[in-house]
Structure formats: C-alpha cells, structure tokens
Amino acid sequence: MKAISITEPNQSELVDIPAPAAPGAGEVLLKVRQVGYCGSDLTSFRGLNPMVSYPRIPGHEIGATIEQLGADVPEPWVKGQKVLVSPYTSCGKCAACKAGRVNTCKSNQTMGVQRDGAMTEYVVVPHEKLFTSDKLSLEEMALVEPLTVGFHAVARGEVTSEDTVVVFGCGAIGLGVIAGAAARNARVVAVDIDDEKLALAKRCGATDTVNSMNEDLHERLQEMTDGEGPNVMIEAVGLPATFKACVEEVCFAGRVVYIGYAKAAVDYETKYFVMKELDIRGSRNAMPEDFDAVVRHLESGVFPTDAVITKTVSLEDAPAALAAWSENPGEITKIHVKF
Q1: With 0-12 CB in 10 A as exposed, 13-18 as middle and 19+ as buried, what is 32?
Q2: Would you say residue 131 has pLDDT above 90?
Q3: Is 23 a residue whose pLDDT tops 90?
Q4: Could you tell me if 62 and 145 are in contact, meaning their C-beta atoms sit under 8 angstroms apart?
Q5: DSSP state of 56
Q6: Residue 115 · residue 60 · CB < 8 Å
Q7: Is residue 2 within 8 Å of residue 14, measured between CB atoms?
Q8: pLDDT greater than 90 at residue 263
Q9: H or E segment and range at residue 305
Q10: Which of 218, 144, 158 minimizes the C-alpha distance to 186?
Q11: From the centroid of its chain, how far is CA 130?
Q12: Which residues pair with 6 in a beta bridge?
C-alpha cells in the first residue's frame, strides 16, 4: 500500500509498504480518508524533532472509516463508520497514569512521532482510541486532534467565563486555544504579528486582538484589564520572549500555561513567580474529554473549518506540500492530505 515517509531530514517521498495484518482482538482496521499535517510533522521533516528517528511515516490527525473489526470490538463500532483517532499511548503504570493524567504518560508514543503514523492507506488501532460523530465530515474529523491540544491547555488553565485569557500565537494550536476559551465564554485576546492570522482568530472566537509588532502589548493589556493584567496567559508560539511575557503580563494570582517548547533557553525574572503566586503549568497532548469537547464544538458549526484548512492535497502531492510548508511556514495554517 502507499504511504508518505520522511526518509531523512528535508526529504519525504511516496513509498510502498506492506499492508497491516488483520486486526487482532479489540482492534479495528481503518481505511484512512483524510490526514492533517501537524507542526510536529514539520519539525520532523526539518530534522528538529528529538523524538523522531528515520524513516518515519507521519500523521496523527485522522479522519477514517472502519474497514474491518477484530474480535471482541463492542458496539457502537461497525464497518463503514466514520471515525477519528486519539493517537497517544499510555502505559498505565507510571506516575502520570496512576494520577489519571494519561495524556502525559512517561512512555507515551504518539503516532507519527515516536512510532509510525497514519499517512498511509490503512492503519490498525485499538477500538478504545476511536471517537465518532454523525454530524462531522471526514475533513472535520481530521481537524479534531489538533484542536484538542488547545482545548486541553484551556482546561489546564481552568478558564471560566469570568476570565480574560491572552493567547500568544494564532497558528493551528493557538486557534484551538482561542476556540476552547471562547467555548467557555471567556474574554479572549489573540496576540500575533500577522493581521491575517488575527482576523482568522476573530472568526475562531477571539474577542480582542493585538498585533504585537505594531502595538504596545503591555499598554493594551493594561487597558483591557483596568491595570490588573489578564487572568490567564497561554503560550502557543515557542519563543523565549513570549514565555517571559506570560509571567510579566499575567495578573497577581494568575495562571500561565505553556504548550510548546521554547526554541532557546529562557532567562526568567523569577521574582514574579513568588510575588504574584503564579500557577505555571505545562500542557501536553489531550485527554478523552478534550476530544469530546472539540467534537461538540465542531458539531455546533461555529468553527470556520474551511478557513483554517489552508489547502488540501492528494497523497501523491503530499511530499511536495510538506516541503513547500517548510519553505514558507507563515503562509500555512493547516494542510490536509485527502486519500
């Protein structure tokens, strides 16, 4: 069968690989229909993902149909059903799993990162990793997983309708944060340096926007919050400057949530941690309840799916699309590969 393989840094190609074996007990064979490229796929292509070895088949943002059921797969799963997939694993034994936070399992292996992904015609997964919706298209299903990362960050920030939430970055993950915070009826301030991305953030639920290239971020945030600072700061860029700005701009007793990794060491003024008694939290992957929340949000029809998906390409054109994204990352929000 056909698959996309990142064979080495800056090189991907269409390859032939063996079809998966028949699904075992509790497993399902999926016919892959639509897969989104993730930012982790881009870093893998560029040779910057320390968790990836080569060759690697990318892909964990999945819209598929059930092709075959293994033994002991319970209802409601049936052949031909549209599904999406949670691409993570959990060991059930580490401290995180014992605490119920399986999204950050010490031994997690995400599809397309630590193990091969779904940028291929067929894939076998445990039925426990499936989600479905009668209302969503396969295109929307392939958009669920990246949005769950943002929804999980919002949950980590314990966002409520009483909060002003600042989101640094309006890429695919940042838009998920914005949509998740908006779904909780918070005031959402999107911060970016691209006016087009800020306009899209508005469509995703941002109530306010700040172009930090042209405006004084501190002054704007002080104006919006009567001099107190925002209640929650969520970082979805990965720059030392925005990591630092989170602790500097958040209010006293505020919450800071970091999703990505800073691309260089961060030189903090740590007095803010103590003076403000901040809650500083990481956010990794997503929980099953985040998938349920995103499915409900997309079912409501308020999310601008067509605007967020920048382009859709064929499997044959997927390697070229990945290379083009690497050349001009700022021009792309989300690429989908349609099978």
Answers
A1: buried
A2: yes
A3: yes
A4: yes
A5: B
A6: no
A7: yes
A8: no
A9: helix 305-308
A10: 158
A11: 17
A12: 12, 56
What is the structure's pLDDT at 260?
Answer: 85
Extract the tokens encoding 256. Answer: 């800071």
Cα 141–chain centre separation: 13
282 band by pLDDT with thresholds 50, 70 and 90: very high
Q: Which two tokens stand for residue 201?
A: 């953030």
For 215, the token pair is 């405006």
Q: Which residues contact 189 (CB under 8 A, 6 or more apart)?
A: 164, 165, 166, 167, 206, 207, 208, 209, 210, 221, 224, 230
Could you state, in order of their start, the residue ranges of all structural domains in the chain? Answer: 2-132+309-338, 149-282
Lookup result for tokens 């998740």: 180
- CA dist 291 and 38 (Å) reads 17
115: which 2 tokens? Answer: 């193990």
Two structure tokens written together for 146: 């990246």
What does the pLDDT look like over 95-126, one tens digit per residue? Answer: 999 999 999 999 999 999 999 999 999 999 99
Q: At what angle do helices 288-299 and 172-183 cross, to 10 degrees?
A: 80
What's the longest Cα–Cα distance across the chain?
61
Specify the pairing of strand 208-211 against strand 187-192: parallel
Fold of 149-282: Rossmann fold (3.40.50)
∠ CA 334-338-339, nearest 5°, is 150
Residue-by-residue DSSP string for 173-203: HHHHHHHHHHHTT-EEEEEES-HHHHHHHHH
pLDDT digits (tens, 9 = 90+) for 155-193: 999 999 999 999 999 999 999 999 999 999 999 999 999
List the beta bridge partners of residue 65. Answer: 31, 82
Give the three-state DSSP class for 269.
Answer: coil
Does the domain made of 2-132+309-338 have the CATH classification 3.90.180.10?
yes
Contact (CB, 8 A) for 132 and 84: yes
Distance separating the N- and C-terminal Cα atoms of the chain: 12
Three-state secondary structure string covering 286-300? CCHHHHHHHHHHHHC
Closest CA to 85 of 16, 150, 34: 34
Q: Rounded to whole angstroms, how far apart are CA atoms 303 and 176?
A: 10
Give one DSSP letter per residue of 105-144, joined into a string. Answer: -TT---BTTTB--S-BSEEEEEGGGEE--SS--HHHHHHH
